[in-house]
Amino acid sequence: MTGRIGCQGCRDGADLDFTFTMAFQPILDFAAHRVWGYEALVRGTGGESAASILGRVTPETVYRFDQAARVKAIELAGRLFPADDATRLSINFMPNAVYEPAACIRSSLEAARRAGFAHDRIMFEFTENEKFRDTAHVSRIVSEYRRQGFLTALDDFGAGFAGLSLLANFQPDLIKIDMDLLRGIDTDRRRQVIVAGIIGIAGSLGIAVIAEGVETASELETLRGLGATLFQGYHFAKPHLEALPPVAGFPAGGYDHALVA
């Protein structure tokens, strides 16, 4: 990991005994007809799965890994992303690995400065699938990151431990609806009603919604009919290792190529 180790959890933790890199997958804005941003996804340097890398993270290395993953994503984005001021980088992080919010964000701030990334172009995703030990601590993380100018997103919404109760305690900038809720939504009225409700609640709270895991044109069409405008999934592009993939699935006329390397 580059930069100073400002977090006690990192200072006290063990060094990593493995290497990793990132793959990137686009998030598309159909309202603006452009690539909204890219999510950085952990991979092995030979393309090994995220699970194979995360399986090597131990309680002793979780702090350093979380910090190193953020820095790796920002450094790669600084090299790969188009030269604009709008394309966003989405980074997954582990709330339970954040020892102290202000200290743990220091290496991300330094990496962003080196890469020339404005803070409002970086979004941190935390997953509902990770059971939070302390909801108040997560709220402090979200508040600190927003104070620093970063975006925050709740990933896998609808699949994990807390659901709507999380939104009652703190408010991220975006939520990403879990792909299991979206699978087959074009033929399942129950899923349509649930997702329409999530989109409505989010809109009332001023929270943007990303439909992730879209795999078919029919799913896309149904979700657009329910009011979704931000999308991610294999229907558009699979993640590419240390590269920005070409995008498919936009209507005739293409997308704003100025935002795609």
DSSP strand content:
15-25%
Mean pLDDT: 85
- Extract low-pLDDT stretches: 1-6, 257-261
Please trace the helix and strand order, writing H or E for each element. Answer: HEEHHEHHEHEHEHHEHEE
Spatial strand order of the main sheet? 1-2-3-4-5-6-7-8
* Largest sheet descriptor: 8 strands, mixed, barrel
Indicate the structural class: alpha/beta
Range of helix content? 25-40%
Total of DSSP H or I helical runs spanning 4+ residues: 10
What is the gyration radius calculated from CA atoms?
18 Å
Query: Would you report the number of β strands?
Result: 9
Tell me the overall shape. globular
CA-CA gap between termini: 27 Å
Describe the structure.
The protein is of the alpha/beta class. 35% of the residues lie in helices and 20% in strands. The protein has ten helices and nine strands. Strands 1-2-3-4-5-6-7-8 form an eight-stranded mixed barrel. Strand 5, helix 7 and strand 6 form a beta-alpha-beta unit. Helix 3 (62-80) runs parallel beside helix 5. The protein is globular, with a radius of gyration of 18 Å. Mean pLDDT is 85; it is low at 1-6 and 257-261.
